[in-house]
Design brief:
alpha+beta; Tetrahydropterin Synthase, Chain A
């Protein structure tokens, strides 16, 4: 069974190892989806949505929202942002009944990167 929760954050970045319009400083309203895979526990939940919310907001959103992402991730492509997010929350979401399955990062409404457990 899959459980997911969506988040949004606003941030600025520029791609220093890229030649094109995105090498200049600019911002996005990012959308993030965190997906867990697991089985319901004795309370009938894979994970409480409130707990998932607190973990992601505490470890990711609080750091990235209204930030200059280059100060956190040296080449902040959507791909590298997804990898950074995975590293920040993976261990906190490992339980006996579930674990982190996917991280989705939308840089725009129509452009998204999906990082799956099987990609690592």
């Amino acid at each position: 069974m899959l459980l997911s929760k969506d988040f949004k954050f606003d941030a600025a970045h520029n791609l220093v190892h890229y030649h094109g319009k995105c090498e200049k400083l600019h911002g996005h309203t990012y959308r993030l989806r965190v997906v867990l895979e697991g089985v319901p526990d004795s309370e009938g939940m894979i994970m409480d949505f409130c707990e998932l919310n607190d973990i992601v907001k505490g470890k990711v959103i609080s750091r990235l929202d209204h930030s200059y992402i280059n100060e956190i991730i040296s080449q902040p492509t959507a791909e590298n942002i997804a990898l950074w997010i995975w590293d920040e929350i993976h261990d906190l979401l490992q339980r006996d009944n579930c674990g982190l399955h996917e991280v989705h990062v939308w840089e725009t409404e129509t452009s998204c990167v999906i990082l799956r457990r099987s990609d690592l």
